[in-house]
Every structure is written in C-alpha cells, then in structure tokens.
UniProtKB/TrEMBL annotation:
Residues 45-318 form the Carbohydrate kinase PfkB domain. The keyword Transit peptide does not apply. This is Carbohydrate kinase PfkB domain-containing protein. GO terms for molecular function: kinase activity. The keyword Kinase applies. It comes from the Bacteria. It holds the Pfam family PfkB. Belongs to the carbohydrate kinase PfkB family. Keywords: Kinase, Transferase. It comes from Candidatus Blackburnbacteria bacterium RIFCSPHIGHO2_02_FULL_44_20.
Amino acid sequence: MEKNFDIVSVGDTTVDVFLEVSSEDAHKSCDVNNKDCQICFSYASKIPVSKLTRIAGVGNAANNAIGSSRLDLKTAIYTVTGSDQDSQETKRILEEEGVDTRLLVMENGVRSNFSAVINYGGERTIFVYHEPHNYNLPKIETDWIYFTSVGEGKEGLQRQLAEYVATSGVKLGFNPGSYHLKEGLENLRPLLEKTNVLLLNREEAEGLVGSHSAGGSAGQGADIEDTKGLLKSLKDTGPEIVVITDGPDGSYASVDGREVWYVGIPDTEVVERTGAGDAYSTGFLAATIKGHTLPEAMVWGTMNASSVVQHIGAREGLLTLAQIQKWVEKYKDQVKPRMV
C-alpha cells in the first residue's frame, strides 16, 4: 500500500526567544580541557540584552518537518500544541512551509511550549519550558517516523511508537530529547531496539551510555578507540545505524559498531548554533530516504547544519534540495568522508 508521507515528525513544537549577551556582561568558565564550560552572570543583577529575536513554529519536530519539506519530501507532523495565539502561528508557519498539519492537535486550556535561548560567543544555552500536552499516537501512513523531544511523562507515547513500528514496518529515526535522556537507557531500550537511525550529539551519547572520551574528539586527536567504543555501546542498545555529531569537530557514524565513518565541517561563518543538530538529522535522513549512502547522508547533514549556524534560529538556514546539492558541490574538496 502506498503511504501518504515520506516522513512524519513526532514531537513538541515551541516558541524560541533569543537573548544575545555581550562579553562585557557575561563570561565563560571552562575546565582544563576546555570542554566542561559554564556561562556566568553577576548574581542578583540586571543583565543587558543587546539583541532579542522571537521565532515561532520551531522545536525539534517542527525543525525536522520544515527541513524535510524543503528537501522535497512529503512531510507531516504529529504534535500537540496549545490553543493560544502562538499555537495558531505555529500551525500557519508549518502549512506555509508545505508541512501537512492534519495530525496537529490544538489542545484547549494550555499554551505553547517556550524556550529562552541565551546566545553568547556563538554558542547557545537554552532554558526550556514544556506545557503538559497529552499525546495519543494516531494512525500514521508513512515510510519513516522521526521521533524527537517531548515533555516529561510521555512514556505512553514511546510505548505506542515502539509497538507501531514493530507491527507496521515503518522505519524510525530517533533523536532523544532531554526528558528521554533523563529517563535513562533501560526505559528507552524498547524503542532503541526498533530504531533504524539513532542520532545524538556527543554529550547526549555519553550521558546515555557513559563516557568513553579521553578528553577530546576523534577529529582533534583523541583516541579514536574512545569514539568507536561510544558508537559500539550505542549500537549494542539496538539501533541499525548510530550517528554522533560533535559540533565543530564533525560527525561519526557506524552500522556495525566497528567500522566508523568521519566527516568534518566546512570553513563557514558561525552566528549561533541553535538547530544545528536538527538540521544535521534532517539532512541525514532525507539523503537516506532518497537512497544515498551512509557517508553521503553524513555530508548532507553537515551541509544543512553548516547553513543553519549562519543564522539566528533553527529554521532560516534550512536548505532546499537544490541548495543542498550546491553546497555539496561547493565544499566537496573540503568535506570528504573517510573511514577512521
């Protein structure tokens, strides 16, 4: 039977407010390896904000849905929003981007989710508020589902997804959100065992299965065996393919937990990094759905993320199909997948 959609994004949507803070009003404090860092403000003070930007219709699921639509996939979103003006705006934005919203549920008596994003030095620190939205998985006719961040207490949705994927043959891309990771590995295992592509950043990966890092990344001279160990530990939880993104140090992927592909990033401007992970996941899955190889999918993810970080917010830089093909061609000598 022909499916209605190439991919359906499942997860929360939100409104992001970006607060840009100057180096005069904050500072960064890091450990000796410059990895574990905190942003510091004066206690009980008023902190000036040099620029404020509000963006509705975002969040991991919305970013993936819009990005997938731009990459010429038939796309829908299953999300539960509130009934407020922000929720109406989110629905309008999704529809304008070509995302089917028939599965979008507007719940009475609650508001949209909200995130405050502190932008400092090109990196972002995000304060996240999730409204208590109620999810109950509808019937979905699609080739792929992309499951990502939802608020606390959505274990029932996880069980429904695991059962649906097991009985329907639908393929699953899974990007765990912060509440997923707080639940721990054992609670996620039934879903991980049904996952075709697991996508996390390094911090999330280490939080899920424990750190294998000797204090650096494989792209910058750390023991590659540490990265392989992390990939293998994730692979052993059940996914078919595991992808780890590592910010400016590139990304890694493996099918068997032993042979590891690495892709670096192009030399491009970075304004702020919100949405880079969503953009990477979107590009990677779109390439996979279109029949590209694993290393080619990594390049698509890298190009999409590298475009997004040149803008404030997670949506503006998401590439169209024609644009991503141009990016791949432009940076083909700079971004070359290799086995490590």
